[in-house]
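User: These chains co-purify. Model them together.
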Amino acid sequence: MIERKKEVIASLENLGLQIYEQIDTGYFPSIEMPSRSTENIRYDPQIRQYILGDRKVRRHTRNIRHIRPFTQLVWTALFSRELTSHRKTSTLRDVYYSAQAYEMKFTDQQESNNIITDLETVLGLSREDFNIFPEERSAVFGDLTIEYTVPGYEGKTLNLTSHPDGVMIGPALTSSEFVSTTADKVIAIEKGGLFTRFVEENVHEKFNSLLVLTAGQAPRATRHFIRRLSRELDIPVYIFTDGDPWGMHIAMVIISGSANAAHLRKLTTPDAKWSGVWATDIVNYKLPTDPLDEVDIKRLYELQRDPRYKDPLWQREIKTFLKIRKKAEQEAFSRYGLTYIVDEYLPTKLEETK
Amino acid sequence: MARTTFEEISAADFFYRNRDIAGFTNPTRAIFASVRELVENSLDAAESLKVPPDIYVRLSYANETDKETNVFRLRIKDNGLGVPPRHIPSAFGQVLYGSKYKPKQQRGTFGLGGKMAILYGQITTHQPARIISSTGMSKIYSYKLRIDIQRNRPLILDRKVLINKERWRGTIVEFSLEGDYSRAMPKILEYFKQTAMVNPYANLTFVDPKGRLYKFTRVTEEMPDPPKETLPHPYGVDVELLQRLIHVTTFRNMSDFLKNHFHRIGEITAKKFLEFSNISPSKNPKRLSHEEVVRLMRMLKEFREFLPPNASCLSPLGEKLLKAGISKELKPEFIAVHQRRPSTYAGHPFIVEVAIAYGGEIPRKGSFLIYRFANRIPLLYDEASDVSTTVINSMNWRRYKVTPDMPIAIATHICSTKIPYKTVGKEFIADRPEVRREIANGLREVARSLQRFLTRREHVSRDRKRLDIFSKYLPKIAEFSTQLAGKEKNPDIKKLLRSVKKFGT
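Assistant: Joint model of the two components:
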């Protein structure tokens, strides 16, 4: 982790040096980076995620429209270097406000987020690497002992079963080292209610697993964390979501990433499995359902054409959704008693998607 | 069975019955028209001497104790050439009597306005008018008179002769009239302002019934050359005019007759024309039969070789004075003026002058401010019907980067021996193709100048904005990158800023 931080600081400083030298030799400074326009985003089946193509864009300070975002970019780089080297963290919202102190006011949060994405693209690093985090809401629970690297906690260890609400996947956790675990799988869960049920029902012991709450669409830090669990501990990942196109896509983003993060690597877990709730589960388990509305159906047609969904399993489930025109939430299993999902459904599906 | 009775009415009686056509439609218009007619007479009187006019107008309540009535006393004093004593009664007490029936450019055309004002005052208040005038000689003449409407004759009630110790020269007209000043006020003030625009060499002072003083001060003593009287141009004559000329002429043959009574006919032209029309040069004009006169008129119009009338009978304001006048009243940021070359319509010479002014004290009101002038008088009514408005509205202003929401004023001035007014009230100008073309060409010329100004200004402001942005951000980039790179000293950005500057400013 420390090595990684040094690399990050080096590439930030290198960016500063590059700009410094351009000015010093009498040139208007400019920066080249891959284009993030939709035409330049393509799916790479090899690494199973979206990547950026060869098209480049140049932010040039000679251009009156570029000079302000350019300045913001350099400022953000400087701000990130300060954060990283003082081993402090910050949120996207912090960045937005801190800029005002330098008379570098961003028009809105979106503008500051875009600049951070620019910096990610220029450096090929994700914002978490330079200690800028979004607001966190996801958590992890299970027998995993970690060792902190954040200032004041260096060397301290924590077992992730120590708190029944789970441990928040924040900057301190994502930058920690994994020490030991007895778990042999990761179960990622979309919704907080079910996550709590799993903890209460001792799923982590019964199934020897680490439980991750994604809390809806998984934040990038969480996706990165799941990847690390999968890689560093060498254990499989199973994902449980609601039985609708949106739940399906939560799983897919953990597996294959999003187009928005096409400029980044190391956020995906290509071998993770979507274990349910499938459309076919709705049929097989006779779950209580809601009808699909227009937006759901439109989304299904979009997903049907999406290269990430070309696998037969996904195509089958999309077709089934379109056929039955119904969706079901994870909580729907409560119809068969509160423990049914843990006692019956979960073991069956883990087996099925092994 | 009803019997139809026939009677003859005098000219005064005619205008008494038809005062609408001279602009005395209602109490509001009447008070405006009275001020205006007398101011114009005063301007003409001063200009004919080439003296910068000094005109003082006072409008007061006729009865100071009772301000509820609508009776006003109007007094106008000028420094013009004065009226010779024997002409005073008729000049002010007889309709259609005057000095303005010559083919040269003047403000008034009918010799009607001043007398209409006095006539109107008399019929609404039954008070006599007082005229005081001197030509600057040893005496001042003061008349109190009334118009005998049925006979169109002045009735002299009182006559005084005063010693002119100070050799004052000018005319004072004072009379009572009914009117509605509170409604007429905006138009009257606008009239003075616009009059000041096209008479920048005049001092105009106006004291209104509430005692408020409005002063329009001259910015120059320079005046346009006064117009010369000219003979009628052959294209503009009609049978009546020919008959009159034949009646008064002392010349005994056609050749001399043509040469001496018409503009632009000399020895050679007369000879060519008489050959063309197959009239014997030795023919005595007085012997022309009625049919021959009609034929002569037609031939005069058909003959293509008469030169167009020259413009010596016209007195345009000139680009310099027009610019001075508009600048003084509107204080614009930019002004362009243009004078067209003389042109003619139906044998009448005319010159068009136009101006376009931008910014300064000109308000933004979503459409152009249009000022129309004819023979140096402002036209304030019926703007929508005027030829200038038609031309302005039909122009493609976007070609000149001009939009109606800009603070823009456009002035058009037409001077002619005969302005093609559509009404006796001198409100708006008819849409003659020749006039329309001259106005359009003039406007294009000034619009191009305005476009150049706007473009240049836009460039300058864009460059300044660019420089502002570069000066704001480049130092920051330099500072941030220095810190980021861990360097000691900021790189020098002066060279980069210099290269931004040379884009234009």
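The CA atoms of residues 231 and 269 of chain A lie 8 Å apart.
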